[in-house]
Amino acid sequence: MQPFAYNENGQLSIEELEIAPLARQHGTPLYLYSRQAIEQNWLQFDGAARFNHRCCYAVKANPNLAILNLLAKLGAGFDIVSGGELARVLEAGGSADKVIFSGTGKSREEIDYALDAGIGCFNVESTQELTRIAERAAHKQQTAPVTLRLNPDIDAETHPYITTGKKHNKFGIPNNELESLIQLCLEHPHLELRGLSCHIGSQLTSVSPFIHAFETLLQLYDELASEGIELPWLNLGGGLGVRYHKETPPAPAEYMQAIAERLGERRVKIIFEPGRSIVANAGLLIARVEYIKNNGLQNFAITNAAMNDLLRPALYQAYQPIIPLSRDNDSPLATYDVVGPICESGDFLGKDRELSITQDDLLAICGSGAYGFSMSSNYNSRCRAAEVMVDGQQSHLIRAREQQSDLWRGESMLP
Questions:
Q1: Which residues of 147-165 are buried (b: 16+ CB within 10 A; e: fewer)?
Q2: Helix count (H) and strand count (E) of the chain?
Q3: pLDDT tens, 187-213?
Q4: pLDDT tens digits, residue range 246-294?
């Protein structure tokens, strides 16, 4: 859903609140999220599956405790890729037994932490990782639940930095190693094989790559079933895209219908790991125009938000809509590169945007709820933004703005 719109006064609002007063109250750059949008996106995705399933929110998309707590209350499981993300889920009230631990580089300490917490499953990416998990489980006299993540060599038709299921990617187990790893899981007294998984990429705007990957999983599932090996899970990962600009991603209902048709009468539980589709369009980044500059060739709108606040445009050349908070502006329409104050030529939020703006105007960078704050940094010793959740006519500060003293917390000078 789209949680923001211009009201009758020409002011951009999120749910029932005008945004400009929130920007004055909390300062900018400022991340704003809609509780209603997050809840509705989750319920729409989870409710679209009319078969045995579990949806595990991908924490990497946005790990704020308030968002994790909100989703935990809705019954969500969680997809994590680090011990830190597991700690966040537990702090937010999530259940460890509903957590899938993915990622290619799990340390011994992270594996031990997850075993002690009662992790739902480790998503295994390599032979060495499976061996390590088995060793740690044996050391603790526990049984580690695992799924084996395949690399199906499928083109996800997305940006090369966020495709994860091709042969040249670091993710997943090559086909020639799979049989031996299945055998190890079945024979090892401290491993329990829960299923097979794959994740082919992010921001997918077509059902076909998902179906191709799912059919690969189903073929292996059926082969194992014919040998008497009944797997309880198949994990299809995440990656369902959202509309930032001109994309036309499938609705969750269309996606689930296609899965249901291929699943047929099989009784296996299907795991999904949505992230972007839950939070991306539920969030905005609010920035102030500090300067308008023309260098004789083009116009620049220099804002107080930068690539350290929102990395996607610089990293992926990603397009995110940029709109003014007020329609009541007599400034002439012009084409701008919307940039930040970071000392990098790649520091931009949008290029060639037609805007009617002037100095000190406020802008909203839309679609910033996913991979916005979660990828932010302190580059150029910039404090990270505040985060606010809007709930109807109320707003809640869910992360205070960093202070300059936070920038060197933990550092010390030589004696």
A1: bbbbbbebebebeeebbbb
A2: 12, 20
A3: 999 999 999 998 877 788 888 888 888
A4: 888 889 999 999 999 999 999 999 999 999 999 999 999 999 999 999 9
Which of 55, 56, 185, 343 is flagged as catalytic? 343
Residues 354-365 as b or e (16 or more Cβ within 10 Å = b): ebebeeebbbbb
Rounded to two decimals, the pTM is: 0.94
3-class secondary structure, 300 = strand
CATH number of 103-272: 3.20.20.10
Superfamily name and number for 4-33+280-402:
Lyase, Ornithine Decarboxylase; Chain A, domain 1 (2.40.37.10)
**Cα–Cα distance between 206 and 248 in angstroms, integer?**
8
> Residues 268, 232: contact at Cβ < 8 Å?
yes
Calculate helix-pair angle for 35-48, 65-73, nearest 10 degrees.
40
Residue 343 annotated among the catalytic residues of the structure: yes
In sequence order, the 6+-apart residues with CB closer than 8 A to the CB of 412 are none
**Tokens of residue 112, six digits:** 């031990």
Listed in sequence order, the DSSP H helices in 229-311 are 252-263, 276-279
Q: Domain ranges for the chain, please list them.
A: 4-33+280-402, 103-272
